[in-house]
Amino acid sequence: MTTRKLSQRLKSLRILLLCLLSGFILWSCSNERNPNIEMGSGYLFKEGYPEVRVAAIGLFDEHGNPGIDVTTDVVYKSLVWKKLTADYTAGFSLDISITPEKGDTNSSALTHTYTFSIARKNKNIIHSGDTYTVERRFGVKPGNYKVQVTVMDNSSQKQTVRVAEAELPAPNSTTTTMTNVLMLGRNNQSETKNRFLPVTTYDVPSKLDTLRFEFQLNKPTGKNRVEVRMQLIKFASDTMPPRMMSAPMPSPSNIQYKGIDYDSRTVIQEQRRILTTETGNILIQYPITRPPRGNYRFQVNISGKSVSKTDFKARDFGVKSTNYPYVETVRELAAPLYYLMDRKQYKKLMSYRDPDSMKNYMDEFWLSHIKNQRIAKQVIELYYKHVEEANMQFGNYKAGWKTDPGMIYILFGPPYYVYRSLNQMQWTYGYDRSDPDRNFYFVEPKIPSKFFPFDNYILQRQNNYFTVRYQRVQDWLSGFILKARF
Fold first, then answer.
1. What is the pLDDT of residue 354?
2. Do residues 436 and 421 touch, judged by C-beta distance below 8 A?
3. H helices of 128-259, where?
4. Orientation of helix 355-369 relative to helix 343-351, angle to 10°
5. Is the pLDDT of residue 31 over 80?
C-alpha cells in the first residue's frame, strides 16, 4: 500500500471515529433515573442537526380528563435560516409518537405530525440560543407511556429524535394518588413575560426569574385527611472550575471529588397543607423566586389514611448562568478564560462589575497576544465554540466547561479515540495509547445510578501535564491553534 493511500485510509478512519465519538461522549444526565424524580432532558448536541429538548408529563385537565402534556423546545440557532425579502425564515416538522408500555392492552399508540414556519426580521435570530416552544396535549388513559419526538429541519432534512417517559396514575376509589411534578419558569424580560412555560432541561438559566412547581392529587373521598409536605432543598455541590491538569488530585472527602453530595442538604423553604373535604383532582402550585446558582430539589411527600404508603415525588434542577448552555453576556464570555489566563489576570478580569470594562480587558488580553484582528476573531470564535459544546456534552451538576472532560475538550478539542472500561475512560489524541503527552485518563468515583444520576469523571492528573497544558495554551494565544493538530 502506498504512503498516500495509507494516509487517506487513516484520515477516513479518523473521520469515522470522530462521528462515532459523538455518541460516546455526549452525556448530561444518566439514563438510569429514579422514576419518582423528574430531571428534565439532557442536551443532545450534534453539529448541523436541530437541537431539541423535550418534557412530557401526565396530568388531568380541569374537567378531570387524563392526558399527557408534551413540550418541545427547538433552539433557533440550530435551524437553517434563509433570507427572503425582509424576513429571515426557517421551518421544521414535528412528529410526536406516544406509545403505552409493553403489556398495556387497554391503551393504543398515538402519532401526530405538525409543520412550523418561522419568520423574523431581526438577523440576530440566526445566532440566538433562545427556543421555539411547542406545547401539545394528548388525551390518553392512565398508565405509563414512551413519548418519542422527532424534529426535522425543512431545509437540511436532518432530524433529531428525543425520547421521554410519562406516567399518569389511575384514580382509585380508596387511595389518594399523586402525579409527577412539573416545573415551569417565567422570564419577565422576554416576549412571553406573562407566561409560565415548562422547563425542559435539568438546567435553569438564571434569566428565568420566577419558577413554579405543579402537581396533582386525586383524592377519592372527603372523609380522610391527607397531609401534603412540600420542601425546596439545596444540595452541597462543586460549582468551581477544575484544578489544573498537573495539580494534586482532590481527596475523596473533597466536594470536587464527590461532585454533588445528596447526603448534605439544606431545606430552603417548607410548606405543609392539609386536605380534608377536598375531593377529585386537586391541582397544587408552588411558586418561588428563582434561587441562586446551585443544585436543588423540589420535593413532595403525602401521607394519611387514604395514602397506601408515604408517597414521594420530586423535581431536581440546577441553576446556571443567564444563557446556559450558551455564552452571550460579557460575564459568560469572561468566565471560561480561566484556562488561558494566569491567576492574577483572571482575578482582575472577574473583579470588574462594569461590562464595558470587563470587555475592554478581554479585548486587550486577546490582542496583546494575537496582533492580527482577523486571526484573533477566528481564535475567539473557535474557543467559545468549544466552550458551548463542552456545556452541552458534559454539563451535569455544574456547567460543562467547569468539568474535567470539559477542560480537556476546550483546550485540546474532541479526542481522536475514546476507550471505556467500567468506571474508567481514556481520551487519546494520537495513534499511540501509551504516549504520556497525548493521552488523558479519567476515573468515575461513583457509578451513575438512580441515586446518583450524573457522570462525574475526574482527570487523573500528572506532573507532565504542566508542560502539555503550557504548550497548548501558547497555541491558543499565538493563533497557531488554527493550524495545529495536537
1. 95
2. no
3. 255-258
4. 150
5. no
Side chain identity at 459, as an amino acid letter? L
Q: Are 331 and 358 in contact (CB under 8 A)?
A: yes
In terms of phi and psi (left: phi > 0; alpha: psi -120 to 50; beta: otherwise), the region of 143 is left
State the average pLDDT over residues 325-344: 97
DSSP helix/strand/coil, 3? helix
Q: Could you give the CA distance from residue 393 to residue 251 in angstroms, rounded to a whole number?
A: 26
Question: Cβ atoms within 10 A of the Cβ of 46, count?
Answer: 15
Query: Amino acid identity, residue 358?
Result: M
Q: Is the peptide bond before 291 cis (omega within 30 degrees of 0)?
A: no
Cβ 27 vs Cβ 39: under 8 Å: no
DSSP secondary structure letter of residue 243: P
- Please state, in angstroms and rounded to a whole number, the distance separating the CA atoms of residues 419 and 410: 19
Query: What does the angle CA 438 – CA 443 – CA 444 come to, to the nearest 5 degrees?
Result: 145
pLDDT, residue 191, reads: 64
Q: With contact defined as beta carbons under 8 Å apart, do 247 and 461 qualify?
A: yes
Question: How many helices, marked H, and strands, marked E, lie in the chain?
Answer: 8, 23
User: What is the pTM for the complete model shown?
Assistant: 0.89
Q: Which of 480, 461, 464 is nearest to 472 (CA)?
A: 480
CA atoms within 13 A on the CB side of 348: 11
How far lies 426's CA from each of 225, 416, 429, 449, 464, in Å?
A: 56, 11, 10, 21, 17
DSSP of 159-170: EEEEEEEEEEPP
3-state class of 211 per DSSP?
Answer: strand
pLDDT in tens, 135-148: 999 999 999 999 99
DSSP string, 412-452: H-S-SEEEEETTEEEEESSS-TT-TTSEEEEE-SS--BTTB
Buried b (16+ CB within 10 A) or exposed e, 101-138: eeeeeebeebeeeeeeebeeeeeebeebbbbbebebeb
Grid coordinates of 469: 497544558
* Buried residues in 376-405 as b, exposed as e (16+ CB within 10 A): beebbeebbebbbbbbbbbbbbbbbbbbbb
H-run or E-run covering 272 = strand 260-275
The C-alpha cell that represents 43 in the structure block: 442536551
Structural domains for the chain: 3-18+330-482 (no CATH), 37-168 (2.60.40.10), 171-320 (2.60.40.3880)
